[in-house]
Design goal:
about 15% strand; 2 domains; 6-stranded mixed β-sheet; elongated; alpha/beta; 12 helices; Rossmann fold; about 45% helix; 14 strands
Amino acid sequence: MINIRKLLAMLLALVLVFGLVACASSDTTTPADTSSDSGSEDASGDTTPDSDAAESGNIEYDVVFIPKSIHEFYNIIRTGVDDAIADLAEEGITINLTWSAAAKADSSEQARLLESAISLQPDAIAIAVIDGDMCKDLMQQALDMGISVIAFDTDFEGSPRQACVGAGMDNQRLCGSQAVDMLVEGMGTDSAQIAVLSGSPTAENHQIILEGFTERVEADFPNLEIVTIQADNDDLETATRITENIFAQYPDIQGIFGVTSSNGLGAGKAYQAAIASGQFELGDVTILDKTLTEEKRTDMIPAGYMYGVLDSPPYIMGYYAVQMINAYLTDGIPYQDIEMPYRAATAENLDTFTDNYLEEFADLEYWNQ
């Protein structure tokens, strides 16, 4: 016969054991999947940020930037990125940056870098897409994993990115049109032989700018003769060699437009050498391209080897990209596209260009409003 006192003791022990197990289960949290640290996915497929990190006061994010290549233009963007990260660190927000840049702009290599970035399962990826067809599905894959994805510098039709910071496709086309006016202004005539250095044939933004330029010439400047359009693959030395050949083949050339931030500089170096050799005199050829780099600001434009640039400042682009990501992840502020129009920088406004740009477009910083 079972002893009642022993039975009660056994039942009491079992109750205590099950109670401890239940308490342990309710206090244990499952480690978060790092692929969804930046948020969850809503019914539309968009990622939404979590507020836990902001509430805990221990905010840290892993962010991957994928530029087109190692290039001076992207070095300037990187400076803006680094400065934004430093400013956020002062607010107690840590951004662990992976800067993933190929040696040359290559769409297949960029797709491989994007795959590698996704495997890291960061909180956010920012990419300057070379070829949309190569990256579109991968970008969507990242979003489906809960990784925030934005574009910087370049965009493409049908991109799944959550936002883009840069000139935007409409402004890139307008940049080409603006370049025609700027070239005519520099040459002092709308009747001349001109040439175009067209960058990379696979870079969609280069082709958009080129289309804007040629369409404007065809529509409004019948006496401008585009004698040649040559791809330089966004390489300074290649642009220099091509320009030397243009000078030899077209000695009456009066204007050259480069659609990238380096090919006009390469043309300017060829022009500098041609002046030194006596082939041309200063003022014979008007040269311009995109982006106010330091060498253009301090040397090539003041010396007259380049007339100027059309600039959508890359430093601001990089700084804003980081602030956008942080505003979304930390504060839940919905992404907005930031379109940065091009403005002309010549010898007349080099010293004030950046300040004037920031003043004109102060309302771009939507996270501060």
